[in-house]
Amino acid sequence: MRQSFLSHATPCSSPRVVGLLVTVLAIVSVACGDRSPAGQTGDHSQKLAANAPRISACALMPRSELNAIIGTAYDSAEADDDGHSSESGCHYMSATDPAGTSLTIQWITADEYSNSVEHAAQQKASLGGATLAGKLMGSSGGGPSLPGLHGGPIEGLGDEATLNYLLLTVRKGDYTIMIQTIPTDMMAFMTDSTKPIAAVDKEKAVVRKVLEKL
Fold first, then answer.
1. pLDDT at site 133
2. Which of 23, 97, 108, 169 has the most CB atoms in a 10 Å sphere around its CB?
């Protein structure tokens, strides 16, 4: 289910930047793909997740509310839920902006740990993939950047947060939120430093509203 947000990227996107974004997201996916306790089988993990309370990203952040927050005109919201994992995604788009914005929410269930130490380890691991991606892709240990926008840790957002290009990952307690907007004109983002800054500010606004609801 953990498909790359960039599956909706447009042909006009810069191949170099898109390639780097794909690498970042692949690292995040691999590092965060399995949060099951050691020794737990896949079938058992799915059964536990299926019995846990579920969250719908599209219901938690309706298209109309997201449009109002970031000033877009998306006319479609496509849910990405398999009903078996502790994750829910929503992709917001329109005919003129098919790349759009993707929102993913992951959560830790009580069945994934047996004591407070394991619980704390699960929480720490929630942001591990995004942090690792930033270190591998960035320079001097920082996260990847765009003109005017530097990746890496972000203060004052949830319990911890990090930014890799336009992928913002935030954790609050047992919840991890990932949001990314794919520009329709990536070249403009590479030449106008105000555009990536504005895009991330909008992503932060959406995340803050999601955190209020969780």
1. 54
2. 169
